[in-house]
Each structure stands twice: as C-alpha cells, then as structure tokens.
Write a structure and sequence with these properties.
Layout lengths: L7 H12 L2 H10 L20 H9 L7 H14 L1 H6 L9 H16 L5 H8 L5 H4 L9 H19 L6 H15 L4 H8 L8 H22 L16
Helix pairs in contact: 1-10, 6-9, 10-12, 11-12
C-alpha cells in the first residue's frame, strides 16, 4: 500500500500520538525561538548532528500550531509528490525493521569480534532464551554471516508471518491512547478498567496486567513517532515480543 493510500483514521491517530509527546512539544516550543538546540536534542555520539526527533520535526513541522487538516494535507502532499519523502517518513510495521536490525546487529558484532560473526553467534546475540518460538526453527549451522544473510532474513520473515498479520490494528492503537490519557489524568488502573470495560473486574490480576501493557504500548508508540515511525514496533497482541 502506498503511504498516501492509508485511511485518514491512520493519520489522525499518528497526529494524536505525536501530540502526546512531551519531547516533541518541547522541541516545537524551542523551534519558535532563535536559541541553539538544547543538548538533549544533540546526538552525543556525533555532536555535529541532531537526534532523530529533530528530523521528525523537519518532516512533521510544528503540529501544535497546525490544525489536523493542515497537517494531513501537508503529509499527503509530501507522500504523493516526493518519493524520497515516502521512504524517509515511512509507515512502518515490524517487518520493516528486519533489515535494519540484522544489519545493525552484524555491524555491532563485527566491531566487537573483529570479524564476521558466525550464525550461532548472531543467534545468541539477537535472541534470548524466552524466545523459543523464534529460535527452534533456526538451522544449526556455523558459517560466515555474509554467506548466510539471505537465509537468516527468510527465516525471520517466515517466523514473523506466523505470528503477525500485516495490518495496522486501529482499534487497539486507539484503545492504548484512551487508556494512556486516563492514566495521565490521574486515574488509578482500577478506575480506568471500570471506565473502559466495566464488565471486567478491576481486581483481576490478569486484567490489570492487560491494562498496564496497553499503557506501556502507548508509551512505546509515542517514542516511535518521536523517531518518525508510526505505529512502529511495540508488543502487539499475537506477535512475538522482541
């Protein structure tokens, strides 16, 4: 699906999550001044460059001074008229992160080991013992990663396809936001449960864990939009927690 083909509901949720970011609000307020960027927006590893949220600002502007309709028209125009913008301001689900995670992991291991890691070393680095569903189907072979990369990518893609459909679950993402907002208003978890789902008990530990996880998911998505991705990677129901 092309970025400009996503429904307006998608962009509305993206807009709402970006509005919840206090870091983005702070950056927008700062950009209205002539002062230099605060240290928190400077990449500590590369003092001459900015953190990702600054680039997010360049692609999304000051949303606190734009209506949703103005921002929406701007985004659609970017996606339709500029292929490069489509690549950078991407609408990403977990599959989109596969190549980045593999390449990032291999670069780290090469720096650490001083050579190409073996498949076994790569597996040990990428997955922990709790992720047995992922690990059990890996071919137990030892060979340089550069020779095995196509195999590794296919294995991970096949595994993820079993546990997660390539759809954006608008109802869940919207639910996370509602619960997050209620928590920000100062409501207790029990009060939130009674308000959102009064048929479920606020004293049930399993229900409480579900609502706490929803709040955690909202926070993860807020971090993702700060980095220019929506909804990005989070612990979606039915997927393998990574």
């Amino acid at each position: 699906m092309r970025h400009s083909d996503y429904p307006k509901q998608f962009y509305k949720l993206w807009w709402e999550y970006l509005h919840r970011s206090e870091n983005y609000r702070e950056l927008c307020e700062h950009m209205r001044t002539d002062k230099p960027l605060p240290d928190k927006f400077i990449n500590p590893n590369h003092p001459q460059s900015c953190t990702k949220i600054v680039y997010t600002y360049l692609h999304n502007l000051d949303i606190h001074q734009l209506t949703f309709e103005e921002w929406y028209e701007y985004k659609i125009s970017c996606f339709k008229n500029n292929e490069k913008a489509q690549q950078k301001m991407c609408i990403r689900q977990y599959d989109d992160y596969l190549k980045e995670e593999i390449d990032g992991s291999i670069c780290f291991l090469k720096r650490t080991l001083g050579r190409d890691p073996t498949i076994q070393e790569f597996k040990n680095f990428l997955f922990d013992d709790s992720q047995t569903k992922f690990r059990k189907n890996w071919a137990f072979v030892i060979e340089p990663y550069r020779m095995a990369k196509p195999k590794v990518l296919k294995i991970i893609q096949d595994e993820i396809a079993k546990y997660r459909k390539k759809v954006i679950r608008y109802d869940e993402i919207e639910r996370y936001l509602k619960i997050f907002d209620l928590k920000q208003e100062g409501l207790t978890i029990k009060a939130i449960i009674n308000k959102i789902d009064p048929n479920r008990s606020g004293d049930d530990d399993a229900v409480i864990r579900t609502f706490r996880r929803d709040i955690s998911n909202a926070k993860e998505i807020i971090k993702n939009v700060e980095n220019g991705n929506f909804p990005g990677k989070y612990n979606q129901r039915g997927c393998i927690p990574i």
